[in-house]
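User: structure tokens for this one?
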Amino acid sequence: ILTDSASDTLPAEAEQLGVTVIPLNVTLQDGSILRDVIDMTPTEYYAHLASCRKLPTTSQPAPDAFAQLFDQVEAAGDSAVVLTISHKLSGTYQSACIAAEGRERIFVVDTMSASIGSGILARYAIDNAHLHAGELAALLERRRQDVCIIGLVDTLEYLKKGGRISKTAAFAGGLLNIHPVLTLTDGEVTIIGKARGSRQGNNLLVQKIHESGGIDFSMPLLLGYSGLSDALLQKYVADSAPLWENGTEALESVCIGSVIGTHAGPGAVVAAFFRRGGK
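Assistant:
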């Protein structure tokens, strides 16, 4: 199982899960290019983001980066399933497809998601790694429609600067201390609610999770946060305790990496889960 770093699968976690992560790239304001989650930890990156005048830019891996890994897979006589961030948010899927062309044992799956949404699909892939690679890829393409990622962001400014939403949408969301609730619809960022203040934002986040169909606790579930502290995430978990207390004994959370964090900005709280009743 291979995934890109926009799934926010950190190196230590990837090693534990048995996943290979292909890093996207982040270009800082001084022109230096870093490999996401490898050359700078998320904490180091958010400290840098707080002080930089110009928003860093992000870019997909080159096809050669995928091709080198695919060569290793084939040389070992293995097959691979590759999960990428939505093609509507990045050119990573295209790079992987170019590298996979003509390789019969390499299967590329567009998760139509990002961050921990892609991350839980990768975990589901691991749970089903006993399947033939082609069967697993087909299963993931069916189940990706059941993945829901919903997040509360502190500001839309970073998404606007990164070109992920329009200036009009960012302006509307930035009025009067508004905290937008976002999701991914058909692989694109959409605003599904607006709240004034963090408590109202937490309540709206819970409401939108219920409206999405609820959480299938038998499937992978992840929470995420961006910034130097997980304090906002812990507050959200405490405020929404009834949502989790009868479904799971422990909630796993990750710090969102530099690629997604560049566009979400610090202060985001995100939940990724499989909708109840999916097939």
